[in-house]
């Protein structure tokens, strides 16, 4: 029976966010961003195991997850890379070597920085993708009119948005397929797992996500994330 395993890349430095620590360790509504993300994924019954991938130099992770107190379904992999894609590739390799992850197991790769992801959206993704031959990802249809800029930051054209979606995470693929796709990809260039799979000529499924699953990129995103986290506490 294939397992469903969340893999959380959490080895970024958060340069655009500009906090004193990497953004996954910023505290919002009583916990760090990473703890919110992990709590949400580890609490979903359909997810068997959660890997957190941090950099080998990470000085924060032990303070929030002391190894002696780690729940049985959470493991920390200290093998982050210089890019998100390298972190994911390194994490999958280590998980295959030390945690008996099989090629047929499903991996749900989810940004540490998307700390408001909902159980419903992850369950929707799993339901839609578990019988799909390729895999898929949460995404949002583009809602605004899109402009392409020229070098002077003037509009060169309006882009037809009819078939455009914004990629979110989790992105769900079989471990073997994703490892093979990442082995062939330029890990300095690709920004998500789907891109690597698409480059093999395959077509991942787009599954509608929701706006609460925003990624903390710049500091102003924390305002909205705080609101969503507080709402979830009330419900
Ligand atoms: N070398 C990297 C870079 C990013 N990430 C993770 O990938 C997710 C999404 O990346 P992004 O928002 O770009 O995070 P940062 O790289 O930290 O941000 P920035 O580009 O502003 O430095 C985050 O959870 C981040 O920790 C990672 O694990 N390893
Ligand atoms: C994977 C991702 O969350 C999809 O939107 C996103 O690409 C990651 O952020 P980055 O800034 O591109 O690394």
Please give a structural write-up.
It contains 7 helices and 11 strands. With 235 residues, it is an alpha/beta fold. It has a single domain, classed as Spore Coat Polysaccharide Biosynthesis Protein SpsA, Chain A (Alpha-Beta Complex), CATH 3.90.550. The protein has a 7-stranded mixed sheet, with helices on both faces. The protein has a two-stranded antiparallel ribbon with strand order 2-3. Strand 8 and strand 9 form a beta hairpin. Helix 3 packs across helix 5. The chain is globular, with a radius of gyration of 18 Å. The protein starts with a strand and ends with a helix. The mean pLDDT is 97. It binds cytidine-5'-triphosphate (CTP) and the ligand C[C@](O)(CO)[C@H](O)COP(=O)(O)O. The site of the ligand C[C@](O)(CO)[C@H](O)COP(=O)(O)O has 8 residues, from strand 10. Belongs to the IspD/TarI cytidylyltransferase family. IspD subfamily.
Keywords, separated by commas or semicolons:
235 residues; 23% strand; alpha/beta; binds the ligand C[C@](O)(CO)[C@H](O)COP(=O)(O)O; Spore Coat Polysaccharide Biosynthesis Protein SpsA, Chain A; binds cytidine-5'-triphosphate; 2-C-methyl-D-erythritol 4-phosphate cytidylyltransferase activity
